[in-house]
Design goal:
Helices cover 20% and strands 23% of the residues. The longest helix is centred in the N-terminal third of the chain and has 12 residues. It is globular and about 70 Å long.
């Protein structure tokens, strides 16, 4: 890969093996960030880097046909329309569709089926194209999105409808019950814990809004390792001890995060938890779900050792 263009998001912060990824990322020839706010992906960039500020969701988006509607899908698969109500932060800000259309016009050969100017002038035309492409889900898109409460994307499983030969939900048996096939779970390795990364209540994806987690009674910090009290006693750890977490795989790469404050929590024995994305550095790039390739961030084999402050660590 020589170039990377990101439409929103914070890709660099969200990836596993971050201590290895960031130095490699800086070797990219080109990185482009289309963002409403700066994030780490704008700071860890390629040799040539562009930041394209765009209109945020709360800002008024006026195009040739007037103020534009946008849609969002919530966690229940409900799609609703909305309009910005705040004056844009600057007169030169463009919307995301306008930026994408401008890039397309500059790089692609003219195509009568792709009227980029018309799509920017009226986002409803984009939704019409979506409705034609996916009629089962988005028929009458521009009308239904304005109905009170919006409309739900079809989720047959929520209606107990299964598109299987038997008409029932089918379950598959895993090949192994081992938590981590990368590490030999032997009696001699009882020091290995299974780490899951989690988010706080004051967090959205990689964006951290504060250092309090009222769900778990943590305040003023995210440098925390949640453990079962029995594991703490077995490993000779006390509440508020400072530890270094190390990935327990032998692939020639040292992965370590700390200091983390040991905090007792109602968690299964043999397991521990710490915050995402701070602990992404502990997830090897190759440690992922076999088919989907999703990083195995809920199942990271780690060992702990007392944290020893050094001049470098304090810096």
């Amino acid at each position: 890969i020589k170039a990377f263009l990101s439409l929103g998001g914070n890709f660099v912060r969200a990836t596993p093996d971050s201590q290895r990824l960031e130095p490699a990322w800086s070797k990219l020839r080109l990185t482009v960030q289309i963002v409403t706010k700066l994030n780490r992906s704008a700071l860890v960039h390629g040799e040539k880097a562009y930041i394209l500020p765009c209109l945020g969701r709360t800002e008024i988006d006026n195009q040739a046909s007037g103020p534009q509607y946008h849609t969002t899908e919530d966690s229940t698969a409900c799609i609703r329309a909305w309009q910005g109500v705040v004056k844009p932060g600057g007169e030169h800000l463009h919307s995301e569709p306008a930026i994408i259309a401008a890039l397309a016009k500059a790089t692609l050969a003219p195509d009568p089926r792709m009227d980029w100017d018309a799509w920017v002038a009226d986002y409803g035309l984009i939704r019409d194209a979506i409705a034609i492409t996916y009629p089962d889900i988005f028929h009458d898109f521009n009308t239904r999105m304005l109905e009170p409460g919006g409309f739900h994307r079809p989720l047959p499983a929520s209606w107990r409808e299964w598109s299987t030969d038997s008409g029932k939900a089918n379950f598959t048996r895993p090949d192994s019950l081992a938590l981590n096939d990368d590490v030999e779970q032997s009696p001699e390795r009882r020091d290995v814990l299974n780490l899951m990364t989690i988010r706080s209540n004051d967090q959205f994806n990689t964006t951290v809004y504060g250092y309090d987690d009222r769900f778990r009674g943590v305040y003023g910090t995210r440098s925390v390792l949640f453990m079962h009290r029995n594991d703490m006693a077995r490993l000779g750890l006390s509440e508020s001890d400072q530890v270094q977490a190390n990935t327990a795989v032998d692939d020639g790469v040292q992965r370590s995060v700390g200091p983390l404050r040991v905090t007792p929590h109602d968690i299964p024995e043999g397991c521990c938890a710490a915050y995402y994305p701070e602990c992404n550095a502990l997830v090897p790039l190759w440690h992922h779900e076999e088919k989907a390739k999703v990083p195995a961030s809920k199942s990271i084999p780690v060992t702990l050792r007392p944290f020893i402050a050094t001049t470098r660590a304090l810096q």
